[in-house]
Amino acid sequence: MDKDVSFRPSRRPRFDNSELTKTGFWVGQVFMLIATVMGVYLAAQQGLAQAIAFDDLDDQQNNYYLRRSLHDELADNIQVIRDYTATLEKEKPYHLDRYHPQLQFYVWDAMRYNPNTLQTPSQFLSGVRRYYAEIQDIISKGEQRTYGVHFYINLLREKTDAVEKSTLKDMADDIGQLKLDLKKAGVDVD
């Protein structure tokens, strides 16, 4: 039987391991390891900083739209109350409940479930909440004739003027500042 030389298992080549015993090799490997760890660490830090900055801008943008919507809803409700008091003065109805104002609370109610609500300054939330509670109480007492019509109309106007001059104006200023901050960061709103 002829043995074919090409099928013989060849001997493994010997590796030269003499480099492993030299100090220069190990020093180079240590520096490569340190450089890799430092590079990964610095990249992770930069990535984290970018992620935090993006999240902050996203929260600010969402809160801008939330505040803007609340401001617009409050302004609309103020106008509804103004129209309501003008109608009461003009028509002098006996049954006030037939003229009950249709206030809108969609944004106000939706804010309960929005995680950005508590990023809204508390003076705005408190001002709007207080106004809505007072107006609803005044309307209820006015329709039940607890208050006289003239006193009732004046009380509605007084509360509406107060919230318009304070909360609504301050909200508009705050929204304007937030819009400028977002614009400086390169985020266009509206």
From TrEMBL:
Which taxonomic lineage does the organism of this UniProt entry have?
A: Bacteria, Pseudomonadati, Pseudomonadota, Gammaproteobacteria, Enterobacterales
Transmembrane stretches, start-end: 24-44
Q: Which UniProt keywords apply?
A: Membrane, Transmembrane, Transmembrane helix
Q: Which organism is it from?
A: Gallaecimonas xiamenensis 3-C-1
Give the source's domain of life in one word. Answer: Bacteria
The protein's name in its UniProt record: Methyl-accepting chemotaxis protein
